[in-house]
From TrEMBL:
<dbReference type="GO" id="GO:1990002">
    <property type="term" value="F:methylglyoxal reductase (NADPH) (acetol producing) activity"/>
</dbReference>
<dbReference type="InterPro" id="IPR056798">
    <property type="entry name" value="ADH_Fe_C"/>
</dbReference>
<protein>
    <submittedName>
        <fullName>Iron-containing alcohol dehydrogenase</fullName>
    </submittedName>
</protein>
<keyword id="KW-0560">Oxidoreductase</keyword>
<dbReference type="Pfam" id="PF00465">
    <property type="entry name" value="Fe-ADH"/>
</dbReference>
<dbReference type="GO" id="GO:0008106">
    <property type="term" value="F:alcohol dehydrogenase (NADP+) activity"/>
</dbReference>
<dbReference type="InterPro" id="IPR001670">
    <property type="entry name" value="ADH_Fe/GldA"/>
</dbReference>
<feature type="domain" description="Alcohol dehydrogenase iron-type/glycerol dehydrogenase GldA">
    <location>
        <begin position="10"/>
        <end position="181"/>
    </location>
</feature>
<feature type="domain" description="Fe-containing alcohol dehydrogenase-like C-terminal">
    <location>
        <begin position="193"/>
        <end position="387"/>
    </location>
</feature>
<dbReference type="GO" id="GO:0046872">
    <property type="term" value="F:metal ion binding"/>
</dbReference>
<dbReference type="GO" id="GO:1990362">
    <property type="term" value="F:butanol dehydrogenase (NAD+) activity"/>
</dbReference>
<dbReference type="InterPro" id="IPR044731">
    <property type="entry name" value="BDH-like"/>
</dbReference>
<dbReference type="Pfam" id="PF25137">
    <property type="entry name" value="ADH_Fe_C"/>
</dbReference>
<dbReference type="GO" id="GO:0005829">
    <property type="term" value="C:cytosol"/>
</dbReference>
Length: 388
């Protein structure tokens, strides 16, 4: 049975090849002072930076910049962004990049006018925002996180090696997001496929919970099938617009909070993967792919009916003459084959994890109760060991 919920999503999306042409109209809503946030320089190479600057100048904005936002943005970098935003009293934060830039923009948005240390308040104590929020707009260049239409903001404290996400309420969601699938063409293959798996993982984290007949599960099976189909095409033809645009849209739906409504949701692959990221700074999607198969094989007996349904409805496994257990196992084997076909990282050793690190990584993984099994620290270590 669907649980009770509230639902609203305030992010306005502009999707398609001409999406950037709507930026000027959006800018008119906000004050003169804009903080432009971007990463290590990909937007300068592919020309997106010049196009955005031209629109900002045409709109007569004063532009301030924070560049060099790294994948897995750090707390030190957050302090820098807050300083620049405060000194220049900015009216809008415009993120141009992937999930890291968008997450970072949201963190700057809530932290600039925060009297306390944002790490303590938002990331360790998970408190709500009770200070001024600077509006955020997003121009997305990397697909996967769903950050363009949610309140998620993940920050890494490189001193304590804790990587923590705060899921802020809808006041912190981007006010608008510009999604042009062509912007994703210049992604290196490693990042592209990491993004594909991030999307898959977001869907599975929500799918593998509950035993009820829930509409969201049917929606997620559809999203998964479309993702599997389009990702295989995009791998062979990275500039296939149909495939890349489908994937961009699936990513947004996978984590714009809709399919989670009325479900308990699991999120343990992300909790463990995030801790791996805190200790290694590895690419987010690859931290998830490296641990997923051992994790799902571990919890499968506790959620057998759903794993059987997954095998049949997503991987087209024929259940005739097979036990539930056999069907579920074949489904997971097919998922593993698909992941290998994409070229995902399938073990933690490749990400620089060693056996001595496992206990600390397990300590940094928050244990959430929504999935089919509540893990103990020992089970997390066992899963990590199997992932080496
Ligand atoms: O820094 P630049 O030069 O832009 O290069 C980036 C970066 O190196 C590059 N890139 C992005 N767009 C490109 C491009 N290169 C060429 N052409 C383009 N069009 O790709 C690299 C990775 O970018 P990044 O933004 O780090 O990737 P992603 O979108 O996967 O974001 C990862 C961050 O998001 C968090 C992760 O934990 C991680 O910190 N997440 C946020 C979530 C949310 N807000 O809900 C949920 C996710 O589960 C995730 O935890
Ligand atoms: Zn993710």
């Amino acid at each position: 049975m669907l649980g009770n919920f509230e639902y609203s999503n305030p992010t306005k999306l502009y999707f398609g090849e001409d999406a950037l042409s709507y930026l000027g109209g959006e800018l008119a809503t906000y004050g003169k002072r804009v903080l432009l946030i971007y990463g290590g320089g990909s937007i300068k190479k592919n020309g997106i930076y010049d196009d955005v600057i031209k629109i900002l100048k045409d709109a007569d904005k004063d532009v301030f910049e924070v560049s060099g936002v790294m994948p897995n943005p750090t707390l030190e970098k957050l302090y820098e962004g807050c300083r620049v935003a405060k000194e220049n009293n900015v009216d809008l934060i415009l993120s141009v990049g992937g999930g890291s830039c968008c997450d970072y923009a949201k963190a700057v948005s809530v932290s600039t006018h925060c009297e306390e240390d944002p790490w303590e308040k938002y990331y360790l104590r998970m408190e709500d925002v009770d200070n001024k929020i600077i509006p955020v707009g997003c121009i997305l260049t990397m697909v996967g996180t769903g950050s363009e239409m949610n309140g998620g903001s993940v920050i890494t404290n490189s001193k304590s090696k804790l990587k923590i996400g705060h899921v802020f309420g809808d006041k912190v969601f981007p006010k608008f997001s510009i999604l042009n699938p062509i912007y994703t063409y210049t992604l290196p293959e490693y990042q592209m496929v990491a993004g594909f798996y991030d999307i898959m993982s977001h869907i599975l984290e929500q799918y593998f919970s509950g035993t009820d007949d829930n509409t969201s599960d049917y929606i997620m099976e559809g999203l998964l099938k479309s993702l599997i189909n389009s990702s295989k095409i995009a791998l062979k033809e990275p500039q296939n617009y149909e495939a890349r645009s489908n994937i961009m849209w699936i990513a947004t739906w996978a984590l714009n909070t809709l399919v989670a409504k009325g479900k308990t949701t699991d999120w343990m692959v992300h909790m463990i993967g995030q801790s791996v990221g805190g200790h290694t700074n590895a690419t987010h999607g690859m931290t998830l792919s490296a641990i997923s198969m051992p994790y799902y094989r571990h919890i499968m007996p506790d959620g057998l009916a759903k794993f059987k349904r997954y095998a049949i409805n997503v991987w087209n496994v024929n259940p005739e003459g097979k036990s539930d257990d056999e069907v579920a196992k074949i489904g997971l084997d097919q998922m593993e084959n698909y992941m290998k076909e994409l070229g995902l990282v399938m073990n933690l050793t490749e990400l620089g994890v060693t056996e001595e690190m496992l206990s600390n990584i397990a300590d940094g993984a928050f244990i959430l109760p929504g999935g089919y099994k509540i893990l103990t620290k020992e089970e997390i270590i066992q899963i990590l060991k199997q992932s080496l």
